[in-house]
Amino acid sequence: MSYTKHEYSDGAALAAALADEVASRLAAAIYARDSACIAVSGGSTPKKFFEELSTRELAWDKVKVTLVDERFVPADSERSNHLLVAKHLLTNNAAAATFVPLYYDAPSIEEAAVIATKATAALDKPFDVVILGMGGDGHTASFFPHGDNLEQALDLTGLCRVMTMKAEGAGEERLTFSFSSLSDARFLALHIEGQGKKDVLEKAIAGSDETEMPVRAVLNRAASPLDIYWAP
Predict the structure, then answer these.
(1) In the chain, what are the domain boundaries?
(2) Pick from 226, 223, 221, 224: which is nearest to 210 by CA?
């Protein structure tokens, strides 16, 4: 279990610090390889971080942005992570970045996953930056407790691809990168806020059952060190 905790006084301070770190990582990637790639998560927690990051001075035209996971809903749905990123990240300076979605209008989610896997295959691997979130049930990405494809999704020896996930706690069907796609990111971060999420994280750290709390896979088996960012 290899992780570093960063704690801040409030969400605004966390957002600014995380944006500075991510911008630095992306700039280093552009300097080294003339391109950079970041995978971000949805939900309400990252909005401030997205807005901060969007203002950072960076060669954004050399940055590709994708999602860690997505609901199988159209891009204009209020439930869409694509829409969240479009509103809060792909603006200001970051409007010049290239966005690679996971949702595609296909007859089935399985077909959409195949399209998304092909569309994201050209992204730089490993990702330069992966920002994960965590739900109150201990899920991260769309690795939900007892999800129908959870075992395959968490298999680090499996293919790097976009997978489908159905679970009782997930609401809509989901598209998610496999753990093998995310685990070796050059900068791997978990962004959580609130005492409730901190309590969930402590419970995850104290146990080992990944089917109960899939975030434990990231804590225990990620190929890269994990940076945990938390604020009340």
Answers:
(1) 3-175+183-231
(2) 221
Q: What is the CATH number of domain 3-175+183-231?
A: 3.40.50.1360
Of 148, 207, 223, 174, the C-alpha closest to 70 is 174
Write the pLDDT tens digit of every residue in 50-103.
Answer: 999 999 999 999 999 999 999 999 999 999 999 999 999 999 999 999 999 999
DSSP 140: B
CA dist., res. 153 & res. 231, Å (int) = 29
101 closest CA partner among 123, 125, 126, 127 = 123
Using alpha carbons, list the distances in angstroms from residue 124 to 27, 95, 128. 14, 20, 8
Residue 31 clears pLDDT 80, i.e. is over it = yes
State pLDDT tens for residues 205-222.
999 999 999 999 999 999
- Strand runs labelled E in the chain: 3-7, 36-40, 63-67, 69-71, 98-100, 129-132, 162-165, 174-177, 187-193, 226-231
Cβ-based neighbour number of residue 192 at 10 Å: 21
